[in-house]
Design a protein that fits this description.
The complex is a heterodimer. Chain A is 23% helix and 36% strand. By secondary structure, chain A is an alpha+beta fold. In chain A, a hairpin with a 3-residue loop joins strand 16 (300-310) and strand 17 (314-320). The radius of gyration of chain A is 25 Å and the shape is elongated. Chain A starts with a strand and ends with a strand. Chain B has helices at residues 2-33, 46-53, 55-88, 94-102, 109-120, 125-132, 143-167, 171-179, 184-213, 216-221, 228-237, 244-269, 289-317, 334-342, 345-374, 378-387, 395-405, 417-442, 445-453, 458-486, 490-495, 503-512, 516-541; strands spanning 319-322, 325-331. A two-stranded antiparallel sheet of chain B has the order 1-2. In chain B, a hairpin with a 2-residue loop joins strand 1 and strand 2. In chain B, helix 14 (334-342) crosses helix 23 (516-541). The two termini of chain B are 38 Å apart. Classes of the chains: A alpha+beta, B mainly alpha. Chain A binds chain B through residues 51-53, 55, 70, 72-80, 82-84, 86-90, 99-100, 103-104, 147-148, 151, 157, and chain B through 1, 4, 444, 446-447, 449-458, 461, 465, 468-469.
Chain lengths: 360, 549
Amino acid sequence: MSMLVSLRNITKKFGQLKAVDDVSILIEEGDFFTLLGPSGCGKTTLLRTVAGFYNPDAGDIYFGDTRINDIPAHKRGTGMVFQNYALFPHMSVFDNVAYGLRAKKLHSREITTKVKEILERIQLEEYGDRFPSQLSGGQQQRVALARALVISPQVLLMDEPLSNLDAKLRVSMREEIKRMQKELGITTIYVTHDQEEAMAVSDRIAIINLGRLEQIGNAFDIYMQPKNRFVAGFIGNSNIMKIDVNSYDDGESLLHAEIEGTKIFVKTDRPHGVRDWVYMSLRPEWIRIVGDTPEDEINVLSGTVTGVTFLGSIIRYKIRYSDKQVITIDVHDPRATEINKEGDIINFQFGVDSPVIIEE
Amino acid sequence: MRRYLTTWNIILLLIFTILFFSILYPLFFIFKASFISSETGQFSLDSYKSFFHYPYYLRCLKNSIFVSTVATIFAVAIGVPFAVLLSRFHVPGKNIIKTLGTLPLILPTFIGAEAWLMLLGRNGILFNFLHKFGVDIPSMYGWKGIVLVFTLQFFPFVFLMVSAAINSIDSSLEEAAINLGAGRLRVLFTVTLPVITPAIFSGALVVFYLSIENFGVPILIGEDFRVLSVQAYNEFISEMGGNPSMAGALSIILLVITFGLTILQKYWVERKSYAMSALRPPEVKRLKPLPTFLIWSFCAGVVFVALAPFAVVVIASVTKTQGPVMYFGQFSLENFAMAFRISPRPILNSFFLATVATVVGIVFGIAVSYLVVRKRGTVTYLLDLLIMLPLAIAGTVLGIALAATYNEGMIVLTGTWIILALAYFIRKVPFSIKTTSSLLHQIDTSIEEASINLGVPPLMSFIKIIMPIMLPGILAGAIIMWVTTLAELSSTIVLYYGPWATMTVEIFQRIGSGDFGPASAYATILIISVIVPLFILNKVSGKDLASSL
C-alpha cells in the first residue's frame, strides 16, 4: 500500500511566473513528508501536480517505478484532503465516504463494511446519515480524511487540512492525523504554512520559498542547522547577524570573528568561502544574560535593554548592542533571574557551538 | 486528460454553431440588407440617407428617446424614494409592499397597456366615470400613456437595485460621517446618496433600455406617436409594399442604441459600483405615527397604482362583454369558456413553445456556464461576451433578423414553430446562464477535484457532483426562462404564423380590435401562468426571483 514518491526536477509555470522551480524530492515509503513554506511559495501547486490537477511544465513524477505524468487525476490513486474539506454538500457522511469506493465499483456489502470501519476509526460511526452542514469543523475534517483514506490510496495528499480549525482543535487533530498515518503506514505529503504544525507531525520537511526548495531534513536538523537566512528566519525565531571573519582554525573547526569590534568564536564545519564576512544565525533561547564579565569567558557582548515582553513561559528582551543592531534574547524561567528594565545595560553571552553559519 | 478536453471542445464548437445561426448570422444578414437598395438590389446607403433625411423617420428616433428619457426620470423619481424609505424606516406591511412592489416587472407590459386602455381609453370606465362629473382628463393615447405604463412597470428595477445598494452600506460608514461632525442631511447628501449613485444609474439604464426596446405598449397606445421599434415592425411586416432595407436600417439603428446601452451598463456602471458587504446593516428607524403614515401612503399608493390595472384585467375577464362594450358588475365565465373551449390553441402553443425553448435553454445554459466559469481562456471569454448579446437586442429586431434570414435560401424556417422556439431560446437563454453560472461560481472547484481524486472521471464528476448542487439555480433559471417566454410579444408578433399564434398574439390582436373581454381572459391566464411558478419557486428557494431578471 505504501509507495515511494519521487519528484524529479519539477517545474510548473503560470504564465511567466515559476510557481515551482526545478524541485526534486524523494519521499520514502510510509514517510510523513511536509511541504512547508509561506503562502504563495508553490507548495500547494506542487501537491496539486502530484494529484494530477496540474501538468508540470518540466520534470517527472514517479510513484514507485511508475512514471505517472500522463496518468489522469482520477486514475492516480491518491487520496486528497482539501483545505476546505470539499465534502459533497448534497450527500450524507456515509455517501461521501463511500463515493470513492463506488467509483471503484466495489460490491455494496464490501462498501458498507469499509465505510463503517473507517467511520468507527474516526469516531463518527453514529454520523453516517448526517449531512456535512450538520457537522462541526473538526468532524468535517475527519470525514474528509476518512473519505481519502477509505480508498486505500497509494499516497495521501493533504492541503493545509487544519487551517480552518481553531487553535486547540488544530493541535488535537494533528495528533490524530499523525497517529492514523503511522497505523496505516501510508506515504503522506502534507502541505502547511505553520512551522510548528510541520515540526509536530512530520518525519521530514521540505522548506519551499518562491517555488524553490530551500532545505530538506527532519525537524531537528532544520531547526538546529538551517542552511540559509530564509530557513533560519522561517523556522522558529532567529537573530541573523553579520560577522567579520578574521581567520579559521582548521584543527579545532573554530571561526575567529568579530561583531562590532568584539572578538567572538564560532564552532563550524561549514566552509565560509573567501569573503571576509558571513551571516550567522543565533537562536534567542541560546543566549543568556550574564552578570559582570569574567575575564576568561568568551563570546560576551553588552548592550542596552530597549524592550521587555513577558510571554508567560519566557521573557523576551530586545537589546541594542550597537548603533543599528538589536538582538532578541529569550530567558526561560523568569523567576530564576532578576527582571531587567528598559534602559538597563546588561551583558549577554552565547556558546561557541550555539550560532550556525548560514548562506545568504 | 486529452480525451476529456476534446469532449468539451466539441461542446464548445456546438455552442458556437448554435450562436452563429441563431444570432450572429441573422444580425449580419439584416445589417447587409440595410445596405442593399430594395429597388436595384445593389449596394446603397439610401435607407440610412432617407432615415436621416425624412422627418418622418427621425421623429421615430426622437420619440423613442423622448419617452424613454421621461419614463426613466419618473421611474427614478419613484423608485429611489420607494427604496430608501422602505429600507430605512419602519413601515407597516413592509414585506408585502416590497413583494408587490417587484411584481410589475414580471407582468407583461402590453397587458398593463390594455388595462390602462380599459380605464382611461376612449371608452374607459374611469374616463367615463370622471366625464359624468364633468372632469375631462387629458388623453392617454400618445406619449403620456406610454410614459405612464413604462414608469409603473419599470420603477421596480430602480427600487431593487437601489435597495440592494442601500442595504449593503455598513452602518459604520454613516456613523463615521456623524462622528466627524456631519448632520443627518449632510450624511445623506455626502455619504449615502453618492454611495448608491451607481445603483441609481444602473437602474435608470435598465429602465431606459427596456423602454426603448419595448414594442407592445407604444403600438397599443401610441397611435400616431411612432417609435423606432414600431416603425421597424411596420416597415417589415407590410412586406409586399414594405421595405426590407428600411426595416433593416431601422433595426440596425435600434440595435446600435441598445448595444451601446448594454456596453455602458457593463463597463461604466459596473466599474463604478462600490461593492461592500455590510457587516452591520443600517438601522431601521421607527418614526412618529404621522410621518410613518405619510411614508406608508406613498409606498402603498405606488404599489396600488401599479397593480390596480392588472386587477381590472382580471375583473374584466369575468365580466359580461359584447365586443368593446363591457357590462361591469355582471359576472360571466363566457370569456374563459371562449378561451378554453373555442380557441384553446394559443394557450397550448404558448406552453409548448415556452417548454421547448426552456428545455433547450437549460441544457445549453449548463454547458455554457460550465465552460465560462470553469474552463477559463480566450475562447470562453469570447463566449461569455457573446452569450449576453441577446440581452442587447430588442425583441422586434431579433424577430426581424430571424424572419428575414430564414425566409428563403438553404434553411427556411419562417412560418414554422421552430423559428419561434429558436427566437425564444436565444432571447431568454441569458437568464438561464446568469442563474446557473452565478451558482457555479459559488461552488468551490475543490468539490469537483475531490470527486476526480476519488477516481471518477471529470465529465462524470460534473454530472454526479456539480449538477445536483446546481439544481436550484438551474430550476430558477428554467422558471425565469419559461415565464418570460410566455410573456414574450415583440419577437412573436414578427415571427408567428396563423396556427402558431400564442397567447400574447391573441391578446394583442383582440385588444387591437377592441375585444377586451376575451383579451382579458387570455391575459388573466397569462398572468396566473407567470405569477404562480415564480411564487412557488420563491417559497421553495426563499430568494427573490424578480431580482434575477
